[in-house]
Design a protein that fits this description.
This protein has 602 residues and is α/β, with parallel strands linked by helices. The chain has 23 helices and 17 strands. The strands form 3 sheets. It has a 9-stranded mixed sheet, with helices on both faces. Strands 14-11-10-15-16-17 form a 6-stranded parallel sheet, with helices on both faces. The two termini are 18 Å apart.
């Protein structure tokens, strides 16, 4: 049966912990894919997730439910559950139902005891696990009531990750007439193992999942994830790399892959996105002037901005390889007497006390200087015009008041400092043991004037409220020249894809789902501006040398070549749009529909 025929009598629910709740990559998956799903399914598509009283309201607008959903939600209210219907405030406004897992849910303790008896999964006393079970209980109740109210409609429920999937075992035990899809974006155990084993993929066949889950004290989480994988009619994951992980750690091979995409916003005129690059690069220039120029200056027209970003997983994200490669790049540039400068930004999140006082004060002082320069410019313009209009050749010393000349001398005096620029923007809680700071000190990337590679370690994510950059993360990406992500564990990896979508060349790796997908599906000539670091089977030293050589070749390109490369990168990004990548989800839903009806009718 085709998808069009399935849609005519089917309701599709997509369930994720990160619906209206930005925590990680799954938020991006669900949010960017939702517009396509609404256009395909209209009112037959609905998103489900937990309600967070502190965060959900920013992205969720409550509304009055109608039809079957109104009956189901009304019955849940009658049973004492706090369930909220509305719309996610993103493109196409998908209808959304959020379940409040906080507080005392009626019957939750009995449910957890029954869950342990029926499914042999003991839930340890942990705040997140308690919320996960509360959501599972409410979803189980929701789908049980819906099964009675659905009339002639069939239902597909697509669960993402273990935190949203606790309801699956009970739904299958009750034999609810619902087709179930479960997608894992990264196995819980795999993430822990990869952080502690440099040969994770080589050792995958040898792990005892039960023993390792016990070692990391994540037995409940792993059992919930396994129950979701084995309980689904169709089990999927995002990449062939993660499929291998699932086979060994979850002991079920995925039925198919659902690679991630994005909503690719393309510009009709090529100069439009080039203009955006220039605009946001100028903002990075402002930050760099404020951060570095009090100590020394360099030519911004010959400066390139590289960056890496992601959650703080030092080896998993390839931060170790990146920093070592930058140190070797710095040496090579010095040996060649290069006139270029590279400023590398590392954007991640670590526990911090606050922004460093010196960093913040220099930024504030620069803003004060800018305002003063604006006032001086206005005064000069008015006096220059008046002088010429009177036919008098202007005297430069009379165009600016003595007050402003004094202020300029004060600014220049106060601006200069006799110290190297800081390598970090914040006061890190565990400064002495922070892996990034330790590496920077070890390899001598301390922002000395003679260094051709400068470093800015920003241990907080960038947003529009950031006082140092004054722009959103996607704007920051547009202003950069190269994204660097040589990961050793990355089930998919949105960061290089986000670069490509914005016309920015990027480095990924063959141990990242995205890098593996590109290697498998695209010929080398079809992936301009994307360098795939060979981490599989290669030594650390080999990976570092390959990356430093690539970066050295990149900085030697002329400006015209970099513009052409950005054009090619932006043009190739369309192949990763959800319009193409979303077809895998269509196939998964068709397969689940058929698998359920085959099992249910049997």
């Amino acid at each position: 049966m085709s998808l069009s025929k399935i849609k005519s009598n089917t309701l599709l629910f997509e369930i994720a912990w990160e619906v209206c709740l930005q925590l990680g990559g799954i938020y991006t998956v669900i949010r960017t894919k939702a517009p396509r799903m609404v256009r395909k399914w209209d009112k037959k598509y609905c998103l489900l997730g937990p309600y967070d009283s502190n965060k959900s309201q920013a992205e969720f607008k409550q509304a009055k439910p109608e039809g079957r959903l109104a009956k189901v939600i009304g019955e849940m209210h009658n049973r004492g559950f706090d369930v909220r219907y509305g719309n996610w405030l993103c493109s196409e406004r998908p209808q959304t139902i959020l379940f409040n897992t906080q507080g005392n849910l009626p019957g939750i303790e009995d449910y957890k005891y029954h869950y342990w008896q029926a499914n042999h999964i003991e839930i340890t006393d942990d705040s997140l696990l308690n919320d996960v079970m509360a959501l599972g209980f409410m979803l189980d109740t929701f789908f049980s009531i819906l099964s009675e109210e659905k009339g002639d409609k069939t239902v597909i429920a697509h669960f993402h990750e273990w935190m949203a999937a606790a309801a699956i075992p009970e739904m299958r035990r009750k034999n609810l007439p619902i087709s179930i899809v479960f997608t894992t974006h990264a196995t819980m155990l795999g993430r822990y193992l990869a952080m502690n084993d440099d040969n994770f993929y080589q050792n995958l066949p040898n792990y005892d999942w039960h023993k390792e889950a016990s070692h990391f004290n994540i037995q409940s989480q792993v059992r919930l994830e396994r129950a979701g994988a084995h309980g689904a009619h169709i089990f999927t994951t995002v990449s062939d790399i993660t499929a291998i992980e699932c086979k060994h750690l979850l002991e079920r091979e995925p039925d198919m892959l659902v690679p991630n995409g994005l909503n690719i916003e393309r510009f009709l005129a090529l100069h439009e996105f080039q203009n955006l690059h220039r605009m946001y690069k100028s903002k990075l220039h402002e930050f760099v002037m404020g951060h570095f120029f009090p100590s020394y200056t360099f030519d911004l027209d010959k400066t390139l901005y590289f960056f890496s970003s992601g959650r703080f997983e030092y080896t998993n994200k390839g931060f170790d390889v990146t920093l070592e490669a930058l140190a070797r790049l710095n040496y090579k540039m010095q040996q060649e007497n290069s006139d270029r400068t590279v400023v590398f930004f590392l954007i991640t999140r670590q526990p911090v006390y606050s922004i460093l006082a010196d960093v913040l004060s220099r930024r504030a002082m620069m803003e004060t200087m800018r305002k003063a320069c604006d006032e001086i410019s206005e005064q000069i313009q008015e006096r220059l015009f008046a002088s010429i209009a009177q036919g008098v050749y202007p005297r430069v010393d009379k165009l600016v008041d003595d007050y402003w000349q004094l202020r300029l001398r004060q600014f220049i005096h106060e601006w200069k400092v006799d110290a190297w620029p800081s390598i970090v923007t914040h006061e890190v809680v565990d400064n002495q043991n922070d892996a990034v700071l330790h590496k920077l000190r070890e390899c001598g990337l301390l922002n000395q004037e003679e260094n051709r590679v400068k470093v800015v370690y920003h241990p907080d994510f960038i947003s529009g409220n950031n006082p140092l950059f004054d722009m959103d993360y996607d704007q920051f990406v547009r202003g950069c020249h190269l994204g660097v992500f040589p990961s050793t564990y990355e089930p998919w990896g949105y960061t290089p894809l986000e670069c490509i979508a914005r016309g920015v060349p990027a480095v990924t790796s063959d141990l990242a789902g995205f890098g593996s997908y590109v290697s498998t599906h695209l010929e080398e000539q079809d992936r301009p501006g994307l360098f795939i670091s060979r981490r599989s089977g290669n030594s650390y030293d080999t990976a570092v040398n390959e990356l430093s050589d690539f970066m050295l070749d990149f900085i030697k390109q002329g400006r015209r070549n970099r513009i052409d490369l950005r054009n090619s990168v932006e043009s190739s990004s369309v192949r990763f749009d959800w319009a193409h990548m979303g077809k895998n989800y269509d196939e998964a839903h068709e397969k689940a529909y058929r698998a359920f009806h085959r099992d249910y009718e049997a």
